[in-house]
Structure formats: structure tokens, C-alpha cells
Automatic annotation (TrEMBL):
SUPFAM superfamilies registered for this protein in UniProt: P-loop containing nucleoside triphosphate hydrolases (SSF52540)
Source organism, top-level taxon: Archaea
SMART domains membership: AAA
Domain called AAA+ ATPase: residue spans: 21-212
Single GO molecular function: ATP binding
Protein name (Swiss-Prot/TrEMBL): ATPase associated with various cellular activities AAA_5
Length: 356
């Protein structure tokens, strides 16, 4: 049985409306903005809205990468050799798409088109594959009026088996695209026209509303960020301010809008250790990657104090190797984040860790 959607998570009605109208969506944005999570939640809500007990095959996920081919996704030929025989025989083998396509088509035909169960294929990291090559002739079918029983119903022949394929209207596709890897402007025009594109920008307000450490009705992020003692609340507040500041600088600098820092990195953190680990092992290595290890340029672009134009937060990176330092103390992270957002930490209190 398909897992139920998460309690309390509301997918925007605009996404549901566009999925129903177009049939294919792409969520695009920087890493850590909730694209895959939202795609999964939308798929489950979409399926459950029509079926009380859907099977786990009604939502399937595939990840594209440079090695994925048409044969993997649609259909290929598999060679087999019987025991004791020299002859090799070939048979057609359905790929991920064709498997869910066949199940959706059969379900549609069983119901004679009357409220058929819905099927959703999620393609994670869709831009990492050669999409026109992987989809092949299927591209021409990805229009709502060319599906089964629609006015412009269209069929194509599968490349290997020659089977005629016509997409049923109860099969939907949701792709996710990481703009840190590729700009949306580089997407093939034929794909761009057939998918509805939806941006997923960083949204630190989500952290404030969802974090177990903060009370959005009582806690003031600016006030917490200026506290001299380190608590989970003050460190998270200062982290939120730092993410916002860094994203502004990333947009203005070389990395660009597509490589901003997502808010989900700080979702679910429970204490100072979690937050510090997130900076040391997730966020800082990502910044290092964006700048190809050129720590001097990284510091100049992102970690410079606007007041005196001197590099700050050198404590985060090894100046010789350009890599994130292997051991960074919470007090050092807290002080560095303060410098990024223009808050000076007092030397006598910034090393006090308070987990209360």
C-alpha cells in the first residue's frame, strides 16, 4: 500500500491545478529547498484523492544521471542464453517509464475512463540526464490533448519493440531540477514547452515556523541572533540570518541565484551540535564546491565584513588547502556567523554553550 501523505503538509492548490491541467510539472531551485519532498507529497495526495487504498506502484521514483538511457527508461533488449545451448535470444525489457505506463493504461481501460486511479512518476534530478535522448519519441506525447481519448490523441512506436504507445490521462510526471547543476535557461525547448515549471526558492520562514527550537509567535529572530551566549535558539537564529545574508551575496556574486543555500539544511536540527554539524559538513562544503576550492575568492565574495572590507570568518576554512577546517568549535561558528551578518560577539561569552 502507498504510504499516506504527511500530516499537516499542504501542497499549494496551484500545483495540483497545474498537474491536472498539464500532466507534467518540473520543480526547480537550489539544493535544499524541498523539491523532492514536495513532489512526493503532491504525488501521494494526488493519488489518495481518488483512491482510498492505492498500491505502492502508483507512485514511482527514478533518478536521472548521465548514464541513464532510453533503454533504461522506456525499453531495451536483453540477451539471454539457455543452458546447454549456443544460441543467444533477445527479448524486450520494459524500463521504469513503460512499467508504470502499462499499469496506468490497464487501470484506465478497466474503468473505461471513468475516474481511473491515478499514477505518478517522479523523475528526480531530471536535468542531470540527457532528457531528449532518454525520452525519445515520448516527447511528442507529453501534451494533455494528445493523450488517450483526447481530441488530438497521438500514438508513437517504441524504438525497439515497435509497440504503439499512447499516454493515458491518468499518468502524471513530476520532475525535480537542481539549478546548482544547470540553469533553467539551458533546458531543451521541446521539454520546456511540455512541462509546467515551478520555482522553489529558499524560504527561511519555513525554518521559523517548523523548527522545534523556535516559537514563531514569541521568538524574535533578530533579538535572539544578537545574544552573546550560545543556545540552540540563538545559534539557529544567527544561522537563519547568515543564510539570508549569504544568499543575498550569492545572488550578487559569481555563483548566482541558482546556487543559493536552501532552508531545509536547518530543518529538524535539535541542538547546537546539530546546527554546527550542518554548517561544517553540509553548508560550508557546498560553498567550497561553488567556488571550486578558491577560498580567497569565496571569502572576498561572501565572507567579507561590509564595514571595513576585510575578510572575516577565516576560521571556517584552511587558508593553505582551501578546504573546510576539520575541527570548528561552536564558539567559532557562532562568532563567524555573527561577523557575516554584522554582529560582533564578545570574547568572554561566545564560548559558553547553553543547551537549555
Amino acid at each position: 500500500m502507498l504510504p499516506h501523505p504527511s500530516d499537516g503538509f499542504q501542497v499549494p492548490n496551484s500545483l495540483k491545478r497545474r498537474l491536472g491541467d498539464v500532466g507534467q510539472l518540473i520543480f526547480y531551485g537550489p539544493p535544499g529547498t524541498g523539491k523532492t519532498f514536495t513532489a512526493t507529497e503532491l504525488a501521494r495526495q494526488w493519488v489518495y484523492s481518488r483512491t482510498d487504498t492505492p498500491t505502492d506502484t502508483q507512485v514511482q521514483t527514478v533518478t536521472f544521471h548521465p548514464s541513464v538511457s532510453y533503454e533504461d527508461f522506456v525499453e531495451g533488449l536483453t540477451a539471454t542464453k539457455s543452458s546447454g545451448e549456443d544460441a543467444v535470444t533477445y527479448k524486450y525489457e520494459a524500463g521504469t517509464f513503460k512499467e508504470i505506463y502499462e499499469e496506468a493504461r490497464d487501470a484506465y481501460e478497466r474503468t473505461d475512463g471513468d475516474e481511473p486511479p491515478r499514477y505518478v512518476l517522479i523523475i528526480d534530478e531530471i536535468n542531470r540526464g540527457n532528457v531528449p535522448q532518454i525520452l525519445g519519441e515520448l516527447i511528442s506525447l507529453l501534451e494533455s490533448d494528445k493523450r488517450l481519448d483526447e481530441p488530438q490523441q497521438t500514438s508513437v512506436q517504441a524504438a525497439h519493440s515497435g509497440e504503439k504507445l499512447t499516454l493515458p490521462p491518468n499518468l502524471y510526471i513530476i520532475g525535480t531540477m537542481n539549478t546548482a547543476d544547470q540553469s533553467i535557461a539551458l533546458i531543451d525547448a521541446a521539454i520546456r514547452r511540455r512541462f509546467s515549471f515551478h520555482p522553489f526558492p529558499p524560504d527561511t520562514q519555513v525554518i521559523i515556523e517548523k523548527s522545534s527550537l523556535l516559537n514563531p509567535d514569541k521568538d524574535d529572530i533578530d533579538t535572539l541572533a544578537e545574544e552573546s551566549s550560545i543556545t540552540p535558539k540563538s545559534l539557529l537564529a544567527r544561522s537563519i540570518k547568515a543564510i539570508e545574508t549569504l544568499n543575498e551575496r550569492i545572488v550578487d556574486g559569481d555563483p548566482g541565484r541558482g546556487q543559493r543555500l536552501g532552508h531545509t539544511y536547518l530543518m529538524g536540527v535539535k541542538d547546537t551540535t546539530d546546527i554546527c554539524d550542518t554548517w561544517q559538513f553540509d553548508i560550508l562544503p557546498l560553498l567550497e564546491e561553488y567556488y571550486f576550492g578558491n577560498v580567497d575568492r569565496l571569502r572576498a565574495d561572501l565572507l567579507t565584513n561590509d564595514d571595513d572590507d576585510e575578510p572575516v570568518a577565516d576560521v571556517l576554512f584552511d587558508t593553505n588547502t582551501g578546504e573546510v577546517r576539520p575541527e570548528i568549535q561552536p564558539s567559532e561558528i557562532y562568532s563567524a556567523l555573527g561577523e557575516i551578518v554584522g554582529i560582533q560577539s564578545s570574547d568572554d561569552s561566545s564560548d559558553v554553550i547553553n543547551e537549555d
